[in-house]
Design a protein that fits this description.
Blueprint: E1 5-11, E2 28-29, E3 32-33, H1 34-43, E4 50-55, H2 60-67, E5 73-78, H3 83-93, E6 102-107, H4 115-126, E7 131-137, E8 144-146, E9 149-152, E10 160-169, H5 170-181, H6 191-198, E11 204-208, H7 219-231
Parallel strand pairs: 1-4, 1-6, 4-5, 7-11
Antiparallel strand pairs: 2-3, 6-10, 7-10, 8-9
The structure holds cytidine-5'-triphosphate (CTP) and ligand LQXTBERG.
Site (Positions MEP for the nucleophilic attack): 156, 215
GO molecular function: 2-C-methyl-D-erythritol 4-phosphate cytidylyltransferase activity
GO biological process, one term: isopentenyl diphosphate biosynthetic process, methylerythritol 4-phosphate pathway
């Protein structure tokens, strides 16, 4: 049987930096919640078999109502206290699937992921990559600062900002999380970071992202999101 691909939309956060008084994935831009924009992008992609939503505790009913109209929306499950705990919850929900299936993890807070970006992640997985990230070049000079002083300045041309979706062979991300969850020191801000730390032998391919695929994190991002949604209603 051909490997199947599931998209997991991570919506388990509370949106503290945005400060909207409720999880930011529930706020509307262009007349629909950020979560609906994110689900729609994967629901419309022919390479995606199912979409699983991981939602913040206390908001599962709202998420189920948002997901209901989408044909490929298969489940809404409860997330954990951190992004990695939410990914781990999704992996538990996918426990019956074979290792050769593929999984894409996407932030619900990135409402404008384009079909081309998803295409590139799937193409890399089709080509045999086990872990795939999406990146855009850094525009600013990036430095490492400790205790208020610069300790290193990596050349900007090597600096890439990661976005999502991040795609994996299911067996690979499963194995990485098995080790990660056994580590009391686990700290990671994304799923490729978990593979990089716990399966260093795995090559992480980076494919081109898009400036539109930014993460709604702070109040100014909502202004930009409203503008983009009005320019390109979906
Ligand atoms: N426990 C968590 C934390 C985050 N996320 C998801 O991971 C994505 C990226 O996280 P971030 O932008 O940090 O979202 P929040 O955690 O909601 O924001 P904040 O850190 O400002 O509270 C979001 O779609 C968020 O819902 C998640 O599924 N589970
Ligand atoms: C996964 C991510 O969006 C890649 O840039 C980012 O690391 C999420 O970080 P956050 O702290 O959960 O916003």
């Amino acid at each position: 049987m051909a490997a199947r691909t599931v998209a997991v939309v991570l919506a388990g956060g509370v949106g503290e930096r945005l400060g909207a008084g409720r999880p930011k994935q529930l706020i509307e831009v262009g007349g629909r919640p950020l979560l609906a924009h994110a689900i729609a992008a994967f629901d419309a992609h022919p390479g995606i078999g199912e979409v699983v939503v991981v939602m913040a505790p206390g908001h599962l009913r709202e998420a189920a109502a948002i997901a209901a109209p989408f044909r490929r929306a298969a489940a809404v499950i409860e997330g954990g206290a951190t992004r990695t705990a939410s990914t781990a919850a999704a992996l538990r929900a996918l426990a019956e699937r074979p290792d050769d299936d593929r999984v894409l993890f996407h932030d619900a807070a990135r409402p404008f992921v384009d079909r081309e970006v998803i295409d590139r992640v799937l193409a890399a997985l089709d080509g045999g990559d086990e872990a795939v990230a999406v990146g855009v070049p850094a525009s600013d000079t990036m430095v490492v600062v400790e205790d208020g002083v610069v300790v290193s300045m990596p050349p900007r041309e090597t600096m890439t900002r990661f976005q999502t979706p991040q795609g994996f062979r299911l067996g690979t991300i499963r194995k990485a999380y098995e080790s990660a969850l056994a580590d009391p020191e686990l700290r990671a801000t994304d799923d490729c970071g978990v593979v990089h730390r716990y399966l260093p032998e795995v090559t992480i391919r980076v494919v081109e992202g898009s400036e539109r695929n930014f993460k709604v994190t702070r109040p100014l991002d909502v202004v930009v999101a409203e503008h983009l949604a009005s320019e390109d209603p979906r």
